[in-house]
What does this fold into?
Amino acid sequence: MSNESRKPNVTYSAPIGSVDLLAFKEDGTPHEIWACPDCLPWHAEVVRVGGEFMVREWHAVDCALFQDLIKD
Ligand SMILES: [Zn+2]
It folds into this structure.
């Protein structure tokens, strides 16, 4: 099967999905936020989930980095 058969949609208008990441490591080190190099609609927000601060990153659903983040 050719890689050309389906190109990932990572444009600004692509469908997006979110993943929540801990804002701090266990030793208190802050989670560094870098713009995603693989998709254009990437953005992040800080949310509070059950009293814990989390960084919610939004990526294009097809983004390779996003797929990597949500696979486990
Ligand atoms: Zn991305």
